[in-house]
Amino acid sequence: MTKSQEIIGELRNVSQTFSQPGGRELKVLENISLEVRSHDITALLGPSGCGKSTLLRIFTGLIAPTSGAVVVHGQPLHGLNPAVSMVFQSFALYPWLTVAENVAMGLNGRTTDAEKRQELVVRAVDRVGLEGFEEAYPKELSGGMKQRVGIARALVAQPELLCMDEPFSGLDVLTAENLRVEVVELWRDATTDPNSVLLVTHNIQEAVFMATRIVVLGANPGQIRMVLDNPLPYPRDYHDPQFIAVADRIHDILTNALIPDEPVVVPATAAPRAGPRYEPLPNVHLGEMTGLLERVEQAGGTADIFDLAVEVGKEFGRVLSLVKMAELLDFVDSPKHTVVLTAPGRQFLDAKVNERKRVLNRQLRTLHLFQQLIELLQAQETGALDEDVVLEELAVWLPGLRPQSLFKTIVRWGRYAELLGYNADQRQVYLDRESTSTTTP
Amino acid sequence: MSLWRPHIKLVRLFSAVDLLILAGVAAVLFALIDVGEEWTGVLRPVAEIDLRPAALPRYVMLTLARGFAAYGLSLIFTLLYGYIAAYNRRAEKVMVPLLDILQSIPVLGFLPGLVLALVAIFPQSNIGLELACVLMIFTGQVWNMTFSFYHSLRAIPPELRDAARVYRLTWWQRFTQLELPYATGGLVWNSMMSMAGGWFFLTVCEAFVLGDKDFRLPGIGSYMSVAIHDGNVPAMAAGVAAMVVMIAAVDQLVWRPIVAWSQKFKIEETEAAEQPSSWLLKLLQKSRVLRWVDTKVWTPMMGWGAPPPVAVRLPPARSGVALPVVGWAVAGLCVAGVAWGAVQLIALLLTVPGESWWRVGGLTGLTFLRVLAAVVLATLWTVPVGVAIGLNPRLSRVLQPVIQIMASFPAPMVYPLVLFALHAAGIGLNFGSVALLMLGTQWYILFNVIAGAMAIPQDLHEAAAMYRLSRWERWRRLILPGIFPHVVTGWVTATGGAWNASIVAEYVHYGKEALTATGLGATISLATDRGDYPMLAASVLAMCVAVVGINRLVWRRLYRLAEDNFALTT
User: Fold this and answer.
1) Full-model pTM
2) Which of A56, A175, A219, A319 pairs as cysteine with A171 (C-beta 3.0–4.6 A)?
3) How far is A112 from chain B (nearest CA, A)?
4) Bridge partners, A211 (sequence order)
């Protein structure tokens, strides 16, 4: 923190739990303490499901934390945070209001003077380059223009802190790039507010390109992995070695959090238990994972996860999930943030469709999760179980995950491998014919 | 020069359109005064009906006034009930199931109680009778509007709500800028449906017999019933024509402009290619007076003009509605009223002897069979016709307005014509009433079949052509599953309507004689005629139980099946 910086607001030991249908509790954030300072662009960076949007909403006062406190300028926050305004991922423009009326919404409750309002709206519209579009309705605008309206609406009341919830993720690559540069310019203009930006993103490049401080979050439940300063001078260049170095550091932190090199550490939520652990199956598809493995093979059997993510145009969190699945199946190994194809992985890739199913079947049977499920099914006379029964078990086995989504993933992979069948009409899982004759290894 | 100025100002302020608007406002005011005089006039239970065609416009106007009064009432009720149900979790648990039951209740069964009560309250003036009529229509049109508003409120995207909170919209601003606009689309559509259904009840309620008392309000419904009673064929034709003109005029002058205007509240990412338009709306948008009203009166009233200078503390997104004291008082009154009504009802029902209950059960079964037959027959013809219309864009553009008017036309007005045909064919009312039931309810199914057929994606048709599906295969694999969810929606509405219609379709005045079919509807009508209130209560209760029971046991399951297996989304 430089001398001229002051603390605008902070979170103190904030945790957030949401109750799910069925009375179960899902912990989204755990024990987060964070300062937001003036003259910073602070990026909250993490994969989807790490609670970063929830964190932002707690800071704005839209959500009250389950425990912990939000402090703004030394005062505990009750209700909305007066220092902030917000830009939304889906723009959240009111379709029945014109551009000018949407922007004027940002002045609501601030000034009653019609002329003053008019002047401020014109200035805000001008700052985001939307002159001439004042009378247009949002549906007449492109995505990028819509987000400009969203930004103008947030800027019009000259907030001290601008909160942005994945503001560019709904836009195409070029438009997003253009807006990133402009938001940095708006922030760097010292004569006007906002003097600080709090940005939620899942895009590492975006965080390194824009932010002065990067808060890296881990998932299940969301927690701060590391906070690092990013003092690179503006304008920044994606190809600058220093830029790449910062990005690489974040890569290391994130991969280590999501696919650790050491055996999986039991997360704090699961009670420490003897014996093998149930594997939290990532919610991915076979086709996606196979496609990724093929990429790795083409790259000579080893590739950088983050290069892969850029290459295939997917969120890195998604790519990490794919790698995690492949690693659970023993198809790859992932030292640091590289992926290395293993012998079973090569065997899988070289096989024909039906042979692939056999390999998959064999590998899935090595997972504790599937072993337990098969054992349960074999104990039934009919070899079948009601979905609800399995959901109950899953909730006990892996309390940190949503049972419904885990169930779908299990069924999907079980079907690929001809290990499990599922009848949607009767809502029953059953053992595939071939599986009933053999016993689990 | 000074002489010119006011003149120029006048020209600027008024245009030809404005003169038209002024004329329209004057006409409405004049009509309101006339209606006011009629309503507050000395009680005259049986209005003399003048069968000359020249008298028709005034009858149409009086009928319209009742229809719109009922609609206004429905709208107010909808906004209040829907809002509280959507925001007060505790109230929601009671209010939503209650709404479900209320909408299943046969409205016509309540006519006698309502009329007697209101005439007793206003013994000296017509207003009691008029109110009874308006309330009847209200109970026929309000429920689907309320459901629509409630569902819209619950479906507002969370980010739009977050934006309202971040930008500190007051309660009133949130209501006028977010909630009302978001609900407008559904509300407008349901309002149209409700008004159409309203005419049905209106024509029945304007003239009815209660025990030894005869009630008749001046209006197009009683005009028609007198014409039928007298066997005056030209007057009947004039009545039907006036009704058609009225429905078409309301469509053109009221609903069309509103539908075209409400397009701006549609949530869509990009502009649709074809927008509904209205010549009247285009005309009105040229008006200077209206523009002035819009900027100087409407906009400030809607909340943007002068917001409170200090940030207002907003209630959290979903908690109690402000006004706890008033709310509790109203809730308490409602509970007390319902409890009192229940006690009265039970006392009345206890006087019904056991064997009567058995008879009511049997009659319910008979009417159920008729309702079923009407829906099945209606489905048999509407599915092929509706699919043919829906798959042909040109045909659907031409026919949809026509079908809309046919659907809005109150079926009881043409019952005599159908009865004449049935009589000629030698069919009695026991089977003939099925045709009468169909007359009112088939349109709901037709509408939905057309909508369903239009919603089947072109890709799927192309795939069917590619793989050379035979005509039968195409129906079995594509069209029938594709329209199924829509057909279920149509069935639900149609059966609800058919139960209600059975009250007038199983007991019909044809010329000087009254025809009766054996069934629950006729029982309700006869009990009304004779003033046999215990029997009336018992048969209305039986109908409620039947409607709610079928909703729960059949429709809900079919809905789920349709959603799970035949929804055209992936």
Assistant:
1) 0.79
2) A175
3) 5
4) none
